[in-house]
Specification:
The chain is of the alpha+beta class. The chain has 10 helices and 18 strands. A 6-stranded antiparallel beta barrel has the order 13-14-15-18-17-16. GO terms for molecular function: serine-type endopeptidase activity.
Length: about 400
C-alpha cells in the first residue's frame, strides 16, 4: 500500500493529533514507528497506518532483528537465534537462597515492575527484592525457572480499547492473541504468547496430552464460522501439550490450571494474529481492571453462544475478599496463591461457560499483559460469586521455559 506523507511529523517524531499521541507514545515520551505513521496519515487513517506498518516497513523489521539478536528472514516467523536462546536458557534457582527474610532473589526487571525495594545482589542481574504482601512469602512454587521472555511484538492491540455476560462486542483486531480451541466436541479459549505457542487452562487439555491430534486451534477469528472479516482466520493443529506439573483436578477450582500448546506450524503475525505479553513472576495486579474475552454464553445457564467476539471489564480483587464473598453464598472455597479472582460484588458481569482457558488481560501503558486464565466459577455473573482465574504471574517463568 503506497501512502504519501502529508507532513513532517515522522521526521520530528511529533504527533499532531491527540488520539494518535495518546495511543502510540512510549513511557519515555518518544513515539514508536506505528505512532509516527499514524501522525503522518492523520487521525482518520489510523487503520491505514497500522496496515502500512505491518505490510511495508522492512526498516522496522531489521531494527527488531538487531535488538532481539534474532536471525530469521521474516518478522512474522520471528524466533530467537541459537546464541540468544542459549544465553537466556532458563535455570532453576532457589528464590530464598542468600536473601534476607521477606525478600526473594528475583530478576531486576521483576523488582522494578512490582515496585519492590531492591536490596543486595544475589547473582548476575538478580537482586533480593522486598515483598509487599506477607501472604506471598510462602508461595507453593519456590522453584524459579529464570527471567520471563516476551516476543518483541507482544501486547500490541490492532485497535483502540474504547457480551460475555454484561459485556459487549469487541472490535476486529482488538485482541489479536485470542484463540478458539476445539477439543473433540468441547470448546475453550486461549491466548497466543509466542510465534508457535498458545496458553490455555490445564483442565481443557489435560486428558489429551498423549493425543494432541484431537485439538484444533483457530487464531485471528472474530465472527465464528464466517468469512466476512477482511483478513481470514487460520486453524492450526497441535504437536504437543504441556500441562503444568502441579496441575490437579479438584472439587473446587483446579490447582495450577495452565497448559502450553505447541502449534503444528509457526504463526505469521498480521493485523489479527499477534501474541500477548507475559507478566514478570510474582507481579500483583490487585485493584486493576482486567478484561475477559471470548465467545462464551451471554446469559447465565444459556446454551446460546455469540458469533462475535465479546469482552467484559472486571476488577481484580484479593483472594481473602474472594473467599469472603463466596462464604456469604454458603460456598466454602480456598483461593490458593496461584489463583486470582475478578468480578463485581453484586454480579452482572463475568466470563461464562465456554470461556474456560480464555485470557484475563490488563492494559499497562498501551501494552497488553496476560494476567489470568479463566479457570472456574460457581454459576455466572451472580452476586458474591466472582470468576476464578489461574494467576499467570505465578507460573509465567514456567510458561516461558516451554516457549523456545
Amino acid at each position: 500500500m503506497a501512502t504519501k506523507i502529508k507532513n513532517t511529523c515522522c521526521r520530528t517524531s511529533r504527533c499532531l493529533d491527540e488520539k494518535s499521541r495518546n495511543q502510540f507514545t512510549r513511557r519515555d515520551g518518544t513515539m514508536d514507528d506505528l505512532g509516527k505513521h499514524a501522525c503522518c496519515l492523520g487521525e482518520d487513517s489510523l487503520m491505514e497506518a497500522k496496515e502500512l506498518l505491518f505490510n511495508s516497513l522492512p526498516k522496522l523489521t531489521e531494527q527488531i532483528r538487531h535488538r532481539a539478536a534474532v536471525a530469521d528472514e521474516k518478522l512474522s516467523r520471528f524466533r530467537p537465534s541459537s546464541v540468544f536462546r542459549n544465553f537466556l536458557k532458563p535455570r532453576k534457582v532457589n528464590l530464598f537462597s542468600g536473601c534476607p527474610a521477606n525478600t526473594q532473589c528475583s530478576f531486576i526487571l521483576s523488582c522494578w515492575w512490582t515496585r519492590d525495594s531492591v536490596g543486595t545482589s544475589c547473582g548476575p542481574f538478580f537482586f533480593c527484592c522486598g515483598s509487599q504482601d506477607s501472604r506471598d512469602d510462602h508461595h507453593i512454587n519456590q522453584l524459579y525457572y529464570g527471567p520471563v521472555r516476551n516476543d518483541p511484538m507482544c501486547g500490541r492491540s490492532s485497535t483502540s480499547t474504547s457480551r460475555i455476560v454484561g459485556g459487549e462486542d469487541a472490535a476486529f483486531g482488538q485482541f489479536p492473541w485470542l484463540a478458539f480451541i476445539q477439543v473433540g466436541g468441547s470448546r475453550c479459549g486461549g491466548a497466543l504468547v509466542a510465534w508457535r505457542h498458545v496458553v490455555t487452562a490445564g483442565h481443557c487439555v489435560a486428558k489429551t496430552q498423549h493425543n494432541p491430534g484431537n485439538i484444533k486451534v483457530t487464531l485471528g477469528d472474530y465472527i465464528l464460522n464466517s468469512d466476512l472479516e477482511g483478513i481470514p482466520s487460520e486453524t492450526f493443529g497441535v504437536d504437543e501439550v504441556k500441562v503444568h506439573p502441579k496441575f490437579r483436578f479438584t472439587p473446587q477450582a483446579d490447582r495450577f490450571d495452565v497448559a502450553v500448546l505447541l502449534l503444528d506450524r509457526p504463526v505469521e503475525y498480521k493485523f489479527n494474529m499477534r501474541p500477548i505479553c507475559l507478566p514478570e513472576k510474582g507481579t500483583d495486579f490487585l485493584g486493576s481492571i482486567g478484561y475477559a474475552a471470548g465467545w462464551g454464553a451471554l446469559e447465565p445457564g444459556s446454551k446460546l453462544r455469540p458469533k462475535i467476539l465479546q469482552f467484559v471489564p472486571v476488577p481484580i480483587i484479593n483472594n481473602q475478599m474472594c473467599e469472603g464473598w463466596h462464604r456469604r453464598r454458603g460456598i466454602n472455597i480456598v483461593i490458593f496463591d496461584e489463583m486470582v479472582c475478578a468480578g463485581y460484588e453484586y454480579g452482572g458481569r463475568d466470563s461464562c461457560q465456554g470461556d474456560s482457558g480464555g485470557p484475563l488481560m490488563i492494559n499497562y501503558f498501551g501494552i497488553w499483559y496476560l494476567v489470568g486464565i479463566v479457570s472456574a466459577g460457581y454459576s455466572c455473573a451472580k452476586q458474591f460469586q466472582p470468576g476464578i482465574y489461574h494467576r499467570v504471574s505465578s507460573t509465567s517463568d514456567w510458561i516461558s521455559t516451554n516457549l523456545y
